[in-house]
Design a protein that fits this description.
- With 101 residues, the protein is mainly alpha-helical.
- It has one domain.
- It has five helices and two strands; from the N terminus they run αββαααα.
- Helix 1 runs antiparallel to helix 4 and helix 2 packs across helix 3.
- It starts with a helix and ends with a helix.
- Bound molecules: zinc ion.
- The site of zinc ion has 8 residues, from loops.
């Protein structure tokens, strides 16, 4: 149970608290918004960017763009890997059968 709680905490942290760049699509810029954001799912202080990021997740065509934004710099990649790692460890903790194999 401890592992599940921990991995859930890390997951929530990286989604809503981690210090990453906003990376919301901005007209005329390839790398997107460079403002600081809190969490890989959240945008910066510009309200519109939050909705843009959420919309990217909903539109299937845009998910690839969103994913590449997750690895836009070292910091974002680290947070993403932490999220994925904690998600997987939480999954493994939930399914004891996986550990046996
Ligand atoms: Zn932004």
């Amino acid at each position: 149970m401890v592992i599940i709680t921990l991995s859930a905490a890390v997951l929530l942290w990286s989604f809503f608290q981690a210090p990453v760049t906003c990376a919301a699509p901005v007209r005329g810029r390839d790398d997107g918004c460079r403002n600081n954001a809190t969490g890989i799912l959240m945008g910066c202080h510009i309200h519109q960017h939050r909705w843009q990021k959420l919309k990217m997740l909903i539109l299937r065509r845009r998910v690839r763009e969103f994913c590449s934004g997750l690895f836009s710099d070292g910091k974002a990649a680290l947070v993403t890997l932490a999220a994925v790692g904690s998600f997987l460890s939480g999954l493994v903790a939930l399914i004891p059968g996986v550990v046996v194999h």
